[in-house]
Write a structure and sequence with these properties.
Number of strands: 0
Oligomer: single chain
Distance between the termini: 31 Å
């Protein structure tokens, strides 16, 4: 999810792995949305606001530290009605669709 906050343009090639990882997780779409917007967003949005933001990515341990450092219970506002979040996360819906497709495709193969 932190890929959305790198100083790079997102493409299908960079969004697809995020969707696959999210699809493989045990979290529902609603829980993934909540995690993205109440845990990852506050920890990594400053990178997008930086003049020279990170573009290569972060190590997993740094990601955990940042999220824990910034975490506090927040009122969850659905990202589509928040104009700032909608602007920065407009491609998140591509991840949602990828998760749904991967999970329904996987469920169809088990039948």
């Amino acid at each position: 999810m932190t890929d959305f906050f790198l100083d790079n343009e997102l493409t299908d090639l960079t969004i697809s792995p995020v969707a696959k990882i999210c699809a493989a997780s045990p979290y529902s779409i609603d829980e993934l949305n909540r995690k993205m917007l109440t845990e990852v967003w506050p920890a990594f949005l400053p990178n997008l606001m930086s003049y020279a933001g990170e573009w290569a990515g972060w190590k997993e341990e740094f990601i955990k530290e940042q999220i824990l450092k910034c975490y506090k219970p927040r009122f969850y506002i659905f990202w589509r009605i928040n104009p700032i979040k909608r602007y920065f996360c407009h491609q998140w819906s591509t991840v949602e669709r990828g998760v749904i497709q991967a999970r329904t495709g996987a469920a169809g193969q088990d039948s």
